[in-house]
Amino acid sequence: MKTFTLKVFVNFALTGLLISCSGEKKSVEADEKELTPKYIGEEVEYSTDSTKMIGYIAYDSNNDNQRPGVLVIHEWWGHNEYTRERADMLAELGYVALAIDMYGDGKAATHPDDAQKFMMSVFSNMDEATARFTKALEVLKANPKVDTSNIGVIGYCFGGSVALTMANMGIDMDAVAAFHSGVQLPVMPQEGIKAKVLVCNGAADPFVSNQSVKAYKAAMDSVNADYKYIAYDSAKHAFTSQAADSMGAKFGLPLAYNEEADKKSWEEMKNLFEEVFE
């Protein structure tokens, strides 16, 4: 388990004291302590009939109010620290975030060949993929801190494709954000999409062809889906990951971190959630 604390500072223009409804005074120090969130991140195990999975949930333990829940789906590398860092970032925004495990047993690849095999094992068995995803969704909704009427999903690379595929299948979610995600999907958009969808891709990503983007947009338009597609100029694949440069150089892959696209896409996600979860 890991705990991280974000200090909240409150400025008082006049006396530096709060007066409660009963007339009692509270010191600035007491109020600051009361408002200070305490973020918790901990592993959680869950399973389908055939697969044990190791996830990671992050939340503010000092907030007793139910908050929107968000699933985080990993890149093709698997469930790793990057996925957990994004869950932590969502917890700092006030959400309950569950970084899920789509490969089982917390498997993570260190070589592209293994990552490709893990990814294809999921997409070649959509029944099992759906079971793993829906089980994670059940775990998130079962958490007492989660407002089950407000559920979001974000995914990176492979995880973005999973998120979009599950949205296309009509699984009950409110908002989906996919980052550097393929859009030539195992299940293409069809009637019954419930989620509002955001896709943030790099315009210079060779893994996402113009033809696939046109086909995806046409399919979304044909079913009147509520979506936004953004392509960031000069951004390559994995533009949100600071490890992309080193991994790209190591394996000769067109990966590159792009700080501007990373920050802008995160802001787009925040705007989506604020709009949908209001």
Question: What does the model show?
Answer:
The protein is an alpha/beta fold and 278 residues long. 36% of the residues lie in helices and 24% in strands. The chain has a nine-stranded mixed beta sheet. β4 and β5 form a beta hairpin.
SSE layout:
Elements: E1 2-5, E2 18-19, E3 25-26, H1 28-35, E4 38-47, E5 52-60, E6 67-73, H2 81-92, E7 96-99, H3 112-123, H4 126-142, E8 146-156, H5 158-168, E9 175-179, E10 196-202, H6 210-222, E11 227-232, H7 244-251, H8 259-276
Parallel strand pairs: 6-7, 6-8, 8-9, 9-10, 10-11
Antiparallel strand pairs: 1-4, 2-3, 4-5, 5-7
Strand content: 15-25%
Please list the strands of the largest sheet in the order they lie side by side.
Answer: 1-4-5-7-6-8-9-10-11
How far the N terminus sits from the C terminus, by CA atoms, comes to: 31 Å
Instruction: Report on the biggest sheet.
Output: 9 strands, mixed
